[in-house]
Amino acid sequence: MHAIAKVMHVSKDGDYRRINIQQNAALEIQQIAGVYNQMISSLGERDQRLRGQRDLLETEVALRTSELIQARDAALEANRHKSEFLANITHELRTPLQSILGYTELIKETLEDECIEDCDDDVEKITRNAQHLLTLINSILDIAKIEAGKMEVKHQLINLGELVNDAAATVKPLVDNNNNQLLINAASIKELVYIDEQKVFQILLNLLSNAAKFTSNGTVSVDVVITNMVLKITVRDTGIGISEEQQKLIFEPFRQVDGSESRKFVGTGLGLSIVIRLTELLDGKVELSSKIDVGSSFTVTIPLGQQSASVLSNDSASG
Q1: Does one domain contain both 187 and 206?
Q2: Contact 161, 111 (CB under 8 A)
Q3: How far is CA 247 from CA 7, 154, 205, 254, 269, in A?
Q4: Structural domain of 124
Q5: Sign of dihedral through CA atoms 306, 310, 311, 316?
Q6: 177 and 38 share a domain?
Q7: What are phi and psi of 267, to 5 degrees?
Q8: CA distance 105 to 189
Q9: Side-chain-facing half-sphere of 290: CA atoms under 13 Å
Q10: 156-159 and 219-227: which strand pairing?
Q11: What's the pTM?
Q12: Is residue 207 part of a domain?
């Protein structure tokens, strides 16, 4: 019995051993040893099958992982080629469009000099449509640059209040076109800050344009504040609003609330995607709050660096 107990003790750790019983051992001991040996044999076969299944599973996981890595690399390569293609084709499209705008302006000036007014509306339509197309192309070029990693951050000292007013003035025709009221709350922002002027301007312009496009006979407002070295931009509207399901999609490139050919609101679906990408480039974040038929509120928060901190502290000391 002592020998049997010793073998059982070793076998409990997975080192399965059979019990060898002498012929003259008691019948009861032989029966116990026989049952135990059968059990050990079954356990050994089970463990062998499990090891085989484990090895097979590990091989399959390794193969699938390799396939996923290859698929990921192929997708990244395809995305890179797509971004390069978009960047190149939009550049090629933008050049002739700028020529069209230039020649249209020359024609307009010539007609004015000759006091010919019959073609004013037609020339204005050419200019307006060319400008619209140029805006769409620039949006595609921006997203292509961001995705290709070619969009650089260039900080400079700017007047934030003037920047907000410039963006509001640029988008005001679109606001007026839908009979909206534009409210600007940035009078308290008189500080000079170090930030990427072009990207902040584009963020403001896209948010305001989006609000104006989806609002009619309502209000579009922009609030800009600096608190604890964080720039906070909030653009609100009283427009059609965005459902919870749609809120998950609107920041994706080329996605629109209504993607059908008969949609009421036209565009590339890149405006908000560019906003979130540019904000992320500036280490900021975008938050959205919206209700159907009530309106939407987009809040962009961007941290300001040490250079801005020193400028702001000097402004406070001089004030």
Answers
A1: yes
A2: no
A3: 66, 30, 20, 14, 13
A4: 80-147
A5: positive
A6: no
A7: 150, 175
A8: 37
A9: 27
A10: unpaired
A11: 0.60
A12: yes
